[in-house]
Amino acid sequence: MADQKVTQTVGRRWRNGIKAVAVVSALGFVATACSGSSGPPTLTWYINPDDGGQAAIAQKCTEQANGAYTIETSLLPNDAASQREQLARRLAAGDSSMDIMSLDPPYIPELAEPGFLAPVPDDIAQSSTQDVVQGAIDGATWKGELVTVPFWANTQILWYRKSVAEAAGLDMTQPVTWDQLIEAARSQDKYLGVQGARAESMTVWLNALIASGGGEIVVNPEASAEELQLGLDSPQGEKAAEIISTIGTEGLGGPGLPTMDENASMELFQGDQGSFMVNYNFVWPAMQSAVEEGSLDQSVVDDIGWAVFPRVDADTEAAPPLGGINLGVGADSDHVDLAYEAISCIVQPENQTEYFVTNGNAPAVRSAFDDPSVAQDFPMATTIRESLDIAAPRPQTPYYNEVSTGIQQTWTPPSAVDPASTPASSQQFITEVLRGERLL
Amino acid sequence: MSTTTETARKPVREARPVKSDRAKAESRLGWLLAGPAFVIMLLVTAYPILQAVYDSLFSYRLTAPDDRHFVGLANYGVILTDWVWWRDLLVTLLVTVVTVVVELILGFALALVMHGALKSIRGILRTAILVPYGIITVVSAFAWYYAFDINSGFVNQWFSWVPGISPDLNWFAHFETSIAVIIASEIWKTTPFISLLLLSGLAQVPGELTEAAKVDGATRWEVMRKVTLPNMKAAIMVAVLFRALDAFRIFDNVFIMTNGANSTEVLSLLAYRTSIGRLEIGMGSAVSVLLFICVLLIAFIAIKVFKVDLAGTRGGN
């Protein structure tokens, strides 16, 4: 009896198992059959996280395609470095689903050099660069050829508390220098909102400081790893180190400086000790939302002004950081032509305007700033547009990751930066890493 | 007398090599049942290791596939002559030694509490103690990070009365404070594991031995030192070995909390950053192979030098 029971149980288990396998197989077959049916091809768009703006554009362009294609979005990790890691791995493996990719400009040469990106058709190259800010075009180009399409551009501006600037006697209608901001923070016993964390933001800050002084981090970006020459050990590098070091050693960035990212800077700026802050446009909609939620007082927002990024030298124009996103197509995509067709829809100026208003990311095309809704939602739009015209991209080299990580390791925490030694030691360290002589 | 002794010894000597038919059949069945799993395990563990050893002999960057060339042992030379490797090794050893020692003491105390608890609350007690171990490591790392972070954390406010803690203390800005939080989170997370292993060891100590010692007038401390601990040696050494290997591969906590800033980088993070971050497959594989050798060394030292008897924990037979 017992044996019979066991046999029955085992038999039932087998039958259930076979049923389960059959159901799963059937579902798989149906799914395969559906995906292989005669419907429009699906284009996958790998997007960086946002407030739903890219998904909305994908939906809009799918509708406008009239059945020619469907765009599906696939979310990438939060930070740019992790996005690059995932995209590079997939592209190197020949993943055919890499139809459209939202790419951070500094990482584009690394993907373009080994031929991971499909060439941009001439007509799209021409139409997508008309009236586009120069920095965004530079970021989309590798070895003189447009390899991606500019989608939106981003830049940092100087945000300030009107009351603090006034008390410090600064005329904010005129360009201000870092030395003036440091002095104002010192005299008013306030904190400066800068990003001192060991992250990409440190390279962004350093690049802006060196470029504003007329220098460059990488002198010959198109050179091989062994021949890459750095411009860190230079008068501009020394001046940049002086600014970072002063803010770090004197505690002018607040106690949170060594771990401070863009969000933390914003929180510091909103607080009682806030004075000046360099940061992206996202802070404006974020502060508006905070007021609506009741976590921020309207008087703080009323006290906020904006200006172009601070200068290093009073007589030399500032070079604000340039960020943003470009759109690329994977070389192994099954639908290269359709993907470029979809991209030409995505980057339409009206879509860029809508993306700016809804998600706070500034357009790459100048005409998108002309929409009245932009001025209404972003009163600092003119400052952003002016900044984009003078913004300096980060070094465009296939070895950007090594350069950037090397900078992050040698220029943080800000209090440990020494103008006399950091530029030289950092340059030597990164050069040895590039030659394969050291670990990073 | 001597004849009796001879006949008594004989069967004992012969019993070892001769297996009964039943034992043979069981042994065959054992191999048949475990064989496929053994082969699969060999494939999924041996293949990646051999592939890593092979890749480590090349200068190979994932985003420069055409530039791949053989460099022999040059990658190992670069790693072993770089202070970054030795610094990361020291940090990893520091985390391993401190966490294992503290966890052993705390875990033993918890095991004693669980062992001595009333039957009615034993279940609840074990569940409560196990809770941290049940939490996913990344989740616990984030929880600790947000608790101590100067912008979002509450620790500075709650414990501002403790000397050395003030609202301005940035825990993740210095080596000492960063590593202290990383180690504390690791201890919090894995002490339950070690306490469960020790609890099973405590349960194996024969009750009659402790009773006899008590009857002989031994104090609690003497019973612990001369009866309980010697009988638990196998369980303790296995717990130390398992936790040491586990702690040596620490990754999540450091990755989330500091990402290696302030010289808190550990070896697994170095391997990750080289292989995945820099996409330097050759150099990254070499780091991974060296990390693997370190793990093997720890296991070898524990088993040979400290004589850990892995078979001794099968249930006290």
Automatic annotation (TrEMBL), chain A:
GO MF terms, alphabetically ordered: maltose binding
UniProt cross-references to InterPro entries, sorted A to Z: SBP
GO cellular component: ATP-binding cassette (ABC) transporter complex, substrate-binding subunit-containing
Keyword Transport carried by entry: yes
Keyword annotations from UniProtKB, A to Z: Signal, Sugar transport, Transport
GO biological process, one term: maltodextrin transmembrane transport
Protein origin, superkingdom: Bacteria
Transport listed as a keyword: yes
Family: Belongs to the bacterial solute-binding protein 1 family.
Record-given protein name: Multiple sugar transport system substrate-binding protein
TrEMBL record, chain B:
Domain ABC transmembrane type-1: 89-302
Keyword Membrane: yes
GO biological process: transmembrane transport
Topology class, membrane: Multi-pass membrane protein
Entries under Pfam families matching the protein: BPD_transp_1
Localization in the cell: Cell membrane
Keywords: Cell membrane, Membrane, Sugar transport, Transmembrane, Transmembrane helix, Transport
A single Gene Ontology CC term: plasma membrane
Similarity-based family: Belongs to the binding-protein-dependent transport system permease family.
Protein name: Multiple sugar transport system permease protein
